[in-house]
From TrEMBL:
Taxonomic placement: Eukaryota, Viridiplantae, Streptophyta, Embryophyta, Tracheophyta
Keyword list, A-Z: Membrane, Transmembrane, Transmembrane helix
UniProt entry tagged with the keyword Membrane: yes
Pfam families recorded: DUF707
Regions that span the bilayer: 20-40
Organism listed in the record: Rubroshorea leprosula
Protein name per UniProt: Uncharacterized protein
InterPro entries membership: DUF707
Amino acid sequence: MGLLLLSSVSRKPNESMRLIVTTFFGVVLGFLIGVSFPTLSTTRRNVTSALLPGIDFAYEDKKTGLSTQTALNVLSMRNSSSAHNASDTSKIWVRSNPRGAERLPPEIIRAESDLYFRRLSGNPKEDLTYKPKYLVTFTVGFDQSKNIDAAVEKFSENFTIVLFHYDGRTTEWDEFEWSKKAIHISARRQTKWWYAKRFLHPDIVAQYDYIFIWDEDLGVEHFNAEEYIKLVRKHGLEISQPGLDPNGVLTWQMTKRRFDHEVHKETEERPNWCTDPHLPPCAAFVEIMAPVFSRDAWRCVWHMMQNDLVHGWGLDFALRKCVEPSHEKIGVVDAQWIVHQSVPSLGNQGESDNGKAPWQGVRERCRNEWRMFQDRFTSAENAYYQSLGINPSNSSEPH
Ligand SMILES: *[C@@H]1O[C@H](CO)[C@@H](O)[C@H](O)[C@H]1NC(C)=O
Ligand SMILES: *[C@@H]1O[C@H](CO)[C@@H](O)[C@H](O)[C@H]1NC(C)=O
Ligand SMILES: *[C@@H]1O[C@H](CO)[C@@H](O)[C@H](O)[C@H]1NC(C)=O
Ligand SMILES: *[C@@H]1O[C@H](CO)[C@@H](O)[C@H](O)[C@H]1NC(C)=O
């Protein structure tokens, strides 16, 4: 029970830990059956040996050197799936493989991929002459192409550039040289979080140390992405954004650029806006217009994103659930800052409804999504604590 609790509470599921736990149970189970069954009847003993023929079972080519680990995995999987015929040892079944891939030998499995371009001929090993370490995505309409062109210039060759096109105009971007090396994904009238959920799966973007998921209306004159990453590393920020110029559009004090800091991680808001100085919007908080995620943080945030809630409202308040301690690992970089110009471009692509302007419908949906997301999160947390027999209101986690 203690072990089970450990693995379910752990924020970032640790594969090797799970493997050890599984293996441990397998060995203990085998041992217990081994010790208890000899005292039983011969028929039972035969059943036992059929179920657990020891390490000495037929399993592919023994000469290839079946590792003890693999053997133990196979042993612990005997009982794992009703669809799998446990007595048929000629077939592979590896429970520790990714779900659905249990029939494959572990060493052939490539659970992660990347966004790197490959050649159509030549030795595959020599395809990749350089591997960008960072990813930046912009959700764009061609009307903002000048702004995006200026922004891309601030991202070095160490970045993979992905454009999500919401207006269907993709070929026009070829007037920019960099566009030919960028990845273009086109789906009309979708939002940045819709694309992010569908095209930035953590196993696909696993090669990147940092992932920038940015809007198209950001002024980047005082921003350099490589310098930004240096500061993010230096201050241990797992989730961050550049400070916002106080003269531009500002909603929260937290994201306002400070002139006397490299980064800041907390702020003072208007009176009574913060229930706790370590909680949003006073700390552990960045907005969703220009977030930057570490690989690990993105793995969590991707899982938290809802398929039907596409505007991302409320997501910024929940980002803190993905890092610990969140008031130290979420922050705003002041030394590399941007201007939020606020061009409601995608907002105008909504549908007019009952005589209301398109942007009104969008705004309404944003608010509804925020409420739905909060409700879902609260009930999911309650369900979790109740399943452990803990009264959620006793939880030390502030709400
Ligand atoms: C083994 O299989 C039996 C019968 O299907 C099931 O009741 C039991 O919970 C399984 N044990 C484990 C450890 O999976
Ligand atoms: C499992 O495999 C064995 C041996 O191949 C076979 O005799 C048995 O009928 C199979 N059982 C099921 C449930 O498929
Ligand atoms: C790209 O990354 C390499 C390796 O970390 C580094 O040496 C180089 O300076 C980076 N490029 C720029 C433009 O900063
Ligand atoms: C929650 O806290 C109250 C008062 O501190 C206590 O009486 C109650 O037993 C606790 N419930 C659980 C499930 O821990």
